[in-house]
Specification:
Blueprint (H helix, E strand, L loop, with lengths): L1 E4 L6 H10 L5 E3 L2 H5 L3 E4 L5 H10 L3 H9 L4 E4 L1 H4 L2 E4 L5 E2 L4 E7 L8 E9 L13 E7 L1 E5 L5 E7 L1 E9 L2 E4 L7 H15 L13
Parallel strand pairs: 1-2, 1-3, 3-4, 4-13, 5-7
Antiparallel strand pairs: 5-6, 7-10, 8-9, 8-11, 11-12, 12-13
Length: 213
């Protein structure tokens, strides 16, 4: 079962539609038990990480999400869904996040238009199955003013240049997260999702409603 966490994120519908285009019928939920039972879990995100954490806490989704990831199950975070994985964010003052990945969320440097909005290249730093069939330095769609700075650079699977070379993809075990929005990134974005879900659901009975070629 492909499960998408519903905590009120503005891009929930577009993520759901993108997964549907790949032939899956995702479950959209704010139920903690359904989060824990997911076979593949997606955390979408727009806006501020502090607000996202407040909503996750309000809906009692924080601990189930942390437990799910701690158990090594397949997880995909998008934009703010990447940022909340970190120790904390400096956006709007300091806010503690999920503290799954040691590091901070910092504001993009002055000298560039903020927010960073539009298409930009992702340099693949490591070979990873989520990049299968996607050429290096492919363009993806970004909308953000803050970026993640992990303590462990070995977790950085992709980087993007915008005033600085910032981390735009994280990969650790079954966890993958992107600063860009795959659901707004055309065929390459759909390929990212498809690669992740094929890895996540390998060996599981097919949850696709149709085959996609």
């Amino acid at each position: 079962m492909v499960t998408i966490i519903d905590y009120g994120a503005g891009n929930l519908r577009s993520v759901t539609n993108a997964i549907g285009k790949l032939g899956y019928e995702p479950k959209v939920t704010s139920n903690p038990d359904e989060v824990l039972a997911a076979k593949a879990l997606i955390l979408p995100g727009v806006g501020a990480a502090g607000d996202t954490m407040a909503n996750l806490n309000r809906l009692q989704l924080t601990d189930p999400t942390k437990q799910y990831i701690s158990d090594g199950k397949p997880f995909f975070g998008i934009c703010v869904g990447l940022q909340v994985l970190f120790t904390g964010t400096e956006e709007g003052g300091w806010h503690t996040c999920l503290n799954i990945i040691p590091g901070q969320v910092r504001r993009l440097p002055e000298g560039q238009k903020i927010p960073h909005m539009g298409w930009n290249q992702v340099k693949q730093m490591i070979p990873h199955p989520v990049f299968e069939g996607i050429p290096d330095e492919t363009n993806f769609y970004f909308v953000h003013s803050y970026y993640v700075a992990p303590d462990d650079q070995a977790l950085v699977a992709g980087k993007t240049e915008y005033g600085i070379n910032f981390c735009s993809v994280i990969a650790r075990g079954n966890l993958v997260a992107t600063q860009f929005h795959p659901e707004r990134s055309g065929e390459a974005g759909l390929r990212i999702y498809d690669n992740f879900l094929k890895l996540a659901l390998a060996g599981e009975p097919s949850s696709k409603t149709k085959e996609v070629t």
